[in-house]
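The material for today's practical consists of a large collection of protein records. Read left to right, the backbone structure tokens trace the chain's path through space. An example says more than a description, so a record of this kind follows:
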Amino acid sequence: MRTPVAANPDVALFTGIIIDTAMCLPCIAKKAGAPTEQVNALLRSISANLRLAVAIRQCAACLETKTTFGINTNGHPRDAE
């Protein structure tokens, strides 16, 4: 049985990491201090409730071009600075 998103304390951590930015899975996992499998499962859970942007673009953390994930609050993730 899946844990509801609202009842999962990790959701707030992962949401905070990817809000208004675009990061690849390994960088999200590294920043969160969690295994990529856990991050992947939480991203699936988050996408059921929030608009998750998935695109091939530059990761804001490692600056490599790869599949990135972000939560949009203004229509699009901000570009890497």
